[in-house]
Amino acid sequence: MNWTSAMVSPAAPRRFLEPFHGKALMPPPVWLMRQAGRYLPEYRAVRAKAGSFLDLCYNPALAAEVTLQPVRRYGFDAAILFSDILVVPDALGQRVQFAEGEGPRLDPLRSQRDLARLNEDATRPKFALVHETVSRLRQELPHDTALIGFCGAPWTVATYMVGGQGSSDQSDARQWAYSDPEGFQRLIDILVDVSIEYLSGQVKAGADALQIFDSWAGSLPDDQFRRWVVAPTKRLVAALKAEHPRVPVIGFPRGAGVLAPAYAMETGVDGVSCDTAMPLAFISSQLSGKTVVQGNLDPLLLVTGGHALERRVAEIKAALAGNPFIFNLGHGIVPETPPENVGRLVDLVRGSHR
Amino acid sequence: MNWTSAMVSPAAPRRFLEPFHGKALMPPPVWLMRQAGRYLPEYRAVRAKAGSFLDLCYNPALAAEVTLQPVRRYGFDAAILFSDILVVPDALGQRVQFAEGEGPRLDPLRSQRDLARLNEDATRPKFALVHETVSRLRQELPHDTALIGFCGAPWTVATYMVGGQGSSDQSDARQWAYSDPEGFQRLIDILVDVSIEYLSGQVKAGADALQIFDSWAGSLPDDQFRRWVVAPTKRLVAALKAEHPRVPVIGFPRGAGVLAPAYAMETGVDGVSCDTAMPLAFISSQLSGKTVVQGNLDPLLLVTGGHALERRVAEIKAALAGNPFIFNLGHGIVPETPPENVGRLVDLVRGSHR
Question: What is the pTM of this model?
C-alpha cells in the first residue's frame, strides 16, 4: 500500500514542517545529517548482515530499519531516508562500488561518448526499491515525525560519475565542464531528469520534505556555480514544485559561502542547510528570515562533547532565534561520535533557552 | 654575500610592489602560484637529479634554478622562492617525507605531550639553507623582478603536523583544537615563533614581499577561524612589521569566503590572495580598494586554454580594474598545464584592456 503525503499531513502538522509555514519555533525542530550510521551499534549490526552497502540501500526492510534507529533512540523531529546519492548513477547503469573504508569507486565517464553507457529507462526497478523503503517508513514512523527524502544535486553526483571517486577538488568534472560545456550539460540534464522522477516518487511514497545535497558546490568559480549548481537545481525544484507544491525542498550547497544567498533566492528552494564554515552573523543577516535556515553545528563538537558543545549550541540558537530555523549539523555525523553525545545535543537543543 | 632589501629596492621600484603603494596598474603585475613546478620540462629535469623533494628545497643552487625557470620563460613580475610549507615542521625535527605522487607523510603529533619532539633551536641550519637560496635569487634575478618569500600559516602547517598528511577536512587538528585548546595553542605558538624567524630571515636575505599560505583556512567555523587563523596570523604579521615595516605581506586564506574581509582587516596583511571560488562581485565590493587584491583565475582554465580562458581573464581584469590588483591564479598551477597556455595567459593579462 502507498501512503501519500496528502493522506498523512493535514490533521496535526508535524513540528519539523512548521518553519516552512513561516513559524519560528523555539526550541527549533532538530534532526542530524547522517543520523543513521556507523556511530550507532544497532546500525553496525544491521550493516554486518546486509551484504554490500548498496545492497543495504536497496533492501526496503533493512533500509527502513536503520532509518528508524536514531528516531527511536533520540526522538528526532524528522527521519531521513537511509540511502546514498550514488544510487542514481548506479540505477543509470554506471558501475558503482563501495570498498570498505575507501569510499565509492565508479567506472568514470570521461566524455560525451561515455554517456551512451547511461540508460534513463533502466532506473525504475532500483528507484522502486527506494520508494518502497519510503512507503514502509511512512507507515512505521510515529505520526508526528516528518520523513525527509533526498538526492544528490546534479553537480555533486556528476563529480563522482566523472572522477570515478571522491576528490578534494573535483578537477575531472570541472575540467570536462570547461573543455566541453555542451557535453557536460548533457550529463547534468540527464541527472536533473532522473532526479525529478526519483524525488517525485519519494514524495508519492510518503516523503514530507526533500533535501538536495550539493556537497561539492564550493569548488566552483562564480560563473560555473551559476551554471552547474544554481541552474540545474532551479530546474529540479521547479519540476518538483509543479507536481508537489506543498512539499518543502531544502538545498545544501556545501561550501557555497558568499554565494549561498544567491542560491537561496535563485533556485526556488524553501530552505538552505548551512555548512559548518558559514559564519553565524552571515547566516543571520543574509539568510535568516529570507529562507528557512538549517544548520550548522560542527560535527566534530559531537565527538568532543562537554562544555565546548554546550557553548556552541547556545550560540547557534541565540544567533538564529526569531526566524524559521531547524537545528542540524553543518556536515554529517562522523563514525567516532559517542552516541551519548548525540542524546546530550538533543537535550541541549530542546532545553530552556536563555 | 648577503643582499638586503634596503640595498636593492630604492632606485627603480619593482612593478610588482606598486599596488602596495596604492597604485592601480593596468595591466596589473602578474605571477602565478606554483609557477615553478612539474608542468615545466626544465623543472622535471632538475627535479630528477635532486634526490628527494626536501633535498631540492634545501639545495640553494637547484632551488634557485627552479625558481628562476618560469621567470626566464614568461617574464613574470615576481619570482616566488621555491620551497615547501613543510620545511618548518621538518626543521623543527618532525619526520617529513614526500612519497612520489602521494603527497607528504609526517609522523603525526597527537597531543601536547608530542610537542616535546619539536625543537625550536634546531631550525637554524635548515632555515639557513633556504635563506641562502633567497640570497642567490636576489643576485640572479633581473633587477625589476620582485622576489616573494613565503611560509605556511600556523593553522595550515598544524593540520599537516597533527594529521600526518593532507586530508579533506583536517579533522585531526580540528578535533585537537576542540578537545584541548590550550595544548593546541602551544603548537600554534611554536609555529608563529619559528615562522617569524623564518620569514624575517627571508627578508634579510633579499625577499621584497612575503606570502602566508593558509590553504585550509576554509574548514573552520567562525569562532575557530578567529582563534586559529586570524589571531596567529595577526601576531606573525605584527612581528614582521615591527622588524620590516616596508615589506608587504600577502595572506592567502583559501576558502575563507565570507570571512575574507574580516581576515583582511584584522590580521594586518597588506594584501589578500583570493581563491577560485571567491565571486568577483564580492571581491570587488568587499576587498578591492580596502586591501591589495590578488587572484583569482581557476588553474583548470590554464589546462583548457582557448576561448574560455580568454573570456575569464577579461572578466577578472574588468571586475578588479581601478584598484590595486595583482593578477594570479586562485590556486596553484596543476602539473597537466600545457606550458604554452601559461605564455598565452601572460599575453592576455598584459594585452590591451578593453
Answer: 0.94
Residue B167 lies in a domain: yes
Provide the domain count of chain A. 1
Alpha-carbon distance B206 to A351, whole Å? 59
The whole domain housing A128 covers 31-293
B171 inside 8 A of chain A by CB: yes
β-strand partners of A329: A297
Res B8 pLDDT > 50: no
Please report the residues numbered 213 through 272 in chain A whose beta carbons come closer than 8 angstroms to any beta carbon of chain B: 218-225, 255, 257-259
ipTM above 0.85 for this complex: yes
Instruction: Report residue B204's pLDDT band, with 50, 70 and 90 as the boundaries.
Output: very high
Would B7 be classed as within a structural domain?
A: no
Q: Is the pLDDT of residue A36 over 60?
A: yes
Residues 6 or more apart in contact with residue B162 via CB below 8 angstroms: B108, B109, B110, B172, B173, B176, B187
Query: What is the CATH number for A72?
Result: 3.20.20.210
* DSSP per-residue codes, A158-204: HHHHHHSS--SS-HHHHHHHHH-HHHHHHHHHHHHHHHHHHHHHHHH
Interface test with A, best of B222, B315, B316 (most A CBs within 10 A): B222
| % chain B with pLDDT above 70 | 96
Q: Considering CB atoms only, which of A222, A277, A312 is closest to B280?
A: A222
Is A175 in Cβ contact with B303 (below 8 Å)? yes
Residues in A touching B221 (Cβ below 8 Å) = 276-277, 279, 296, 298, 312, 330
On whether any CB of chain B is under 8 Å from the CB of A75, the answer is no
On whether residue A305 sits in a domain, the answer given is no
From residue B209, how far is each of A136, A211, B119, B149 by CA, in Å?
64, 47, 27, 6
Residue A11 lies in a domain: no
